[in-house]
Every structure is written in structure tokens, then in C-alpha cells.
Amino acid sequence: MKLLWVGIAFVVVLAKWVNGFVEFSLNETEISLMEGFGVSKAGYNPLMVGLTLIHGAGAKGAVCLDGTLPGYHWHRGYGSGANNWLIQLEGGGWCSNVRNCVYRKKTRRGSSTYMEKLIPFTGILSEKAQENPDFYNWNRVKLRYCDGASFTGDSEHKGAQLQFRGERIWWAAMEDLMSKGMRNARQTLLSGCSAGGLASILHCDDFKSLFSGNTRVKCLSDAGLFLDAFVVRVDVSGGRTLRNLYSGVVGLQGVGKSLPRICTNHLDPTSCFFPQNLIASVKTPLFILNAAYDSWQIQSSLAPPSADPHGFWHECRLNHAKCSSTQIHFLQGFRNQMLKVISRFSRSRQNGLFINSCFAHCQTERQDTWFADDSPVIRNKPIALAVGDWYFDRAAVKDIDCPYPCDNTCHNLVFR
């Protein structure tokens, strides 16, 4: 009988551990794996930039999940870029319930205590002209992500000692940077990757409002086009994994107040956390960079382990080369839905697009995907030059790749 009870207890603990792992995986692990800083090359020494805490943020209640001060990494511009500013919003998933937010506040995604004091600036943040031809000498800032709701929301959970202050962090950071010279900017670009790419859409018009009409202001979303619906509007199990996650984030963190009124006036707040319902109404010029077969969405939204109990998608979600023809057909439906979502957005002359047929996620901060000899291209143009052509109005950029497997320039992510 004792052995029986020990066995039951073990199963219960194991079930809780598995559930916790799935939650953690969805919100943190896979995002972190995908947000690498690029390929590792012998002798390659990227610029390392120190962390600056925003000391005035505490008085405004603009704090991380655990109550610590938020921060950013800033490399000053020089020469022709001395008065130009690029703000890169860090990504890293979301937390949608008290349990995973409590876990998160003990990591760099929820506390500045655990943030790296130095991080490499590569890709769009690189200081080398040969690696970043249009933005290398700008003021380049990476705003760290520690609220778990894409820099939105304003509430707290006293019992769990959690502060949900993403909206306050956003404004405190902008106020601090304005006081350090950004108010005099001639040209600015708000960018972000993953959850930060979603944030760059959500805050694009807010960013524009900081500047006079004499400042060129544009926004770039990298891997931020998270879809609520595709094909038959469900994941591989018939569920709505990402909508359920977003519903938790929006409800727990009080995100509704932060969302654009033009959306919440006719849709529920959870729907207005999905960029497909926002992009067409953003007034500021916006560039959407996304892989048509976004690795994070395949792994954690379309075919998460929780929706695939028999493991039919296990090999495919780790390596696209192991997908069956049926699975590829399913993923082509996802691509088709993405193209449908951006159709109205793409008709605006001020907006830009780069949708490549890669199994990737976050391509601006990785040097190998942003600008290198073998970077992904569409019509022989790499991402960095496409973004630069759009930003400086050198050319209209509405680049959409042909469907997989036509593109042999992709840097596809493969997991073990």
C-alpha cells in the first residue's frame, strides 16, 4: 500500500513538472534558443555594450515583474548618425498566469538582477558599416524586456508579489532616452524581435507621438506577426493554443488599457493583442519582416507538444526536413493565412514587407541573417538592404518569397 501511494505521489509530481515544463517551454525556452546573436565565428569579436538601469523609473512604478529597475544597453551614435536613434525592443515570450510569472521573475525576463551586464551588439545593432550599412553609426539602444506582456499592461498581484508594469516601463524608458538626446533626433527607427516585434507594432504610433513633424519616424517588426487564425482557425489538435495564452496575458496583466482604442472599440482585448487586427490601422510607416514558416509559431502555437500527444509532429517541429507532405501542406496553409492577413497592410505605399520562405524566427539581430555574404535574400536583396531601401525611401519594398522549398538562401533553424 505504501508503494502504491508513493507511486501515485510520483505520478502527480511528474504531471505537474510536465505541465510546468510545457508552460515554461512555450513562454521562454524556445524563444531564447531562437533569439541567438548569430553564428559563432573564430576570431569574431562583437561589440559588447553595458547595461544602464533607469534610475528614475522606480518613482513612476515602472518596474520589472519582481520590482527591480528596468534597463537598456546604449551605444552612442557618431558622425552622420549622432542625431539618429534606433530603439530595439527585446523579445522573450510572455507569462500568462501567476505560476509562470513567478518563475519568470527569477530570470532575466522578469528581473534586472538576472540580466546580463554586457551583451553583444550584432546585426541591426552592429557598429560596423560592413555588417550594418545603414544604421552602424546611429545611437543604438536595446531595451530589455522584463514585464512579460510586450511592454503593455499595468496591474499587480500582491499575493505573489508581481508587478505588471510594461506600459510604465515603455514610457519611463522613452522619457529617459529623450532626456539623453533622443528629443533632438533627426531620424528614428523603433524595432523589435518576437514579443518585442509585437511591441513595436503596439507602440509604433506612441513612438511617433514623441517627435515633431521634422523627425523621420518609422517602425520595424521582426518575427512579431503572431497569427490568431489560419486555415481552419485551430492548431493541430483542434485547439487555440496561442489565443488561450494571449487571453491569460491580457487578463492577468491588465493589458486592455494599453491597447489601441481603434481596435478595442470593436474587438475584444485579446483579439487586439494579435497584430493582424492592428497593422492596417497603424498610422506610422511600418515594415514587417517575418519568416513565412515562423519557427516559434510552428513549435509553440501550431504544433506544441500539448496539442500533439502522440508525437506525430515531434520530428517536423524540430527539423522541417523531416516533415511529411501532409505536414508541409498544413504549413503552406499557415503561409497562405499570413499573406491574407497582410494583404490590406501591403497596399499602403508607406509600409514595407519582407516575407521569406524560411523556417526561422528573429532575423534582424543575428549577423548571419541580417547582413553577411550568405544571408537570406529575396530577388538577390538581403534583409538589411531591403530595410534600408524602405527606411530611406530609396525604393518601395514589398518582397514576398515563393513558397517552400524554392528559397535555397534560408538560414533554417534546426533543433535537437
UniProtKB/TrEMBL annotation:
<dbReference type="InterPro" id="IPR004963">
    <property type="entry name" value="PAE/NOTUM"/>
</dbReference>
<dbReference type="GO" id="GO:0071555">
    <property type="term" value="P:cell wall organization"/>
</dbReference>
<keyword id="KW-0961">Cell wall biogenesis/degradation</keyword>
<keyword id="KW-0732">Signal</keyword>
<dbReference type="GO" id="GO:0009505">
    <property type="term" value="C:plant-type cell wall"/>
</dbReference>
<comment type="function">
    <text>Hydrolyzes acetyl esters in homogalacturonan regions of pectin. In type I primary cell wall, galacturonic acid residues of pectin can be acetylated at the O-2 and O-3 positions. Decreasing the degree of acetylation of pectin gels in vitro alters their physical properties.</text>
</comment>
<keyword id="KW-0134">Cell wall</keyword>
<comment type="similarity">
    <text>Belongs to the pectinacetylesterase family.</text>
</comment>
<dbReference type="GO" id="GO:0052793">
    <property type="term" value="F:pectin acetylesterase activity"/>
</dbReference>
<protein>
    <recommendedName>
        <fullName>Pectin acetylesterase</fullName>
        <ecNumber>3.1.1.-</ecNumber>
    </recommendedName>
</protein>
<keyword id="KW-0378">Hydrolase</keyword>
<keyword id="KW-0964">Secreted</keyword>
<dbReference type="Pfam" id="PF03283">
    <property type="entry name" value="PAE"/>
</dbReference>
<feature type="signal peptide">
    <location>
        <begin position="1"/>
        <end position="20"/>
    </location>
</feature>
